[in-house]
Amino acid sequence: MRPEPGGEPTGSRDPVEVDALRDGTRVRIRPLQTGDRPGVEEFARRLSLEAVELRYFVPLPPARVVEELLGSDRVTGRYAALMETVGPGPVRIVGHAEYVRPKDGRAVAEAAFVIADSFQGRGAATLLLWHLAAVARSEGIRTLETVALRTNAAMLQVCFDAGYPFSVALEEDTVRVSLDISGERQTALSSLADRPEAFLERRARPSTGPAA
């Protein structure tokens, strides 16, 4: 299926979408498949150390990144998707996204993303988030949670601007954003006051009690 640019997939376990990034670059989003190892290995080799640390919070060698991205079919409740280029030229994987639902069957799943360095800031993570949300909702999931380092302002901005109602919890070195995906996404839910830097500054500022 081919949704309108910026559209939201209808959601199923085998969706394939062709869409466009903000600069018009055409990309395809599809489920991860067993034959994707060579492409995932190339994708992992191209990731910078910073991109890896923002995704996994610690530095990992490319071989370990490959295994993490491929995951295991035995992981219950896991769904993973790839973003790849659409001609001209050879097809390249430029993004990976996944969610894992807890074994207790709660209607919540934790999502994570990693984007090729040259494709960051072009809307790739937003498209992948919308894709995960649609698939997750079709599986009965109502909340997607993402955990990002406090320094990962770009990922936090993606969550804030995704169009879903959200709540935020500060943890030791990370920020957990919970997205309510039970309904269709909207536009302009965040404001200038919701910029990650401004939000974290407000939350870090000591509160002042009433004057004595």
Describe the structure.
- This protein has 212 residues and is an alpha+beta fold.
- The protein has a single domain, classed as 3-Layer(aba) Sandwich (Aminopeptidase).
- The protein has 6 helices and 8 strands; from the N terminus they run ββαααβββαβαββα.
- It has an 8-stranded mixed β-sheet, with helices on both faces.
- Helix 1 (37-46) packs across helix 3.
- The longest helix has 15 residues, at 124-138.
- It is globular and about 40 Å long.
- The model is unreliable at 1-12 and 204-212 (pLDDT under 50).
Tell me the total number of β-strands.
8
CATH superfamily: Gcn5-related N-acetyltransferase (GNAT)
Low-confidence residue ranges = 1-12, 204-212
Q: List the total number of helices.
A: 6
CATH topology, by name, is Aminopeptidase
Helix content: 25-40%
Gist of the model:
The protein has 212 residues and is α+β, with helices and mostly antiparallel strands. The protein contains six helices and eight strands; from the N terminus they run ββαααβββαβαββα. The chain has one domain: Aminopeptidase.
Core attributes:
6 helices, 8-stranded mixed beta sheet, globular, alpha+beta, Aminopeptidase, single chain
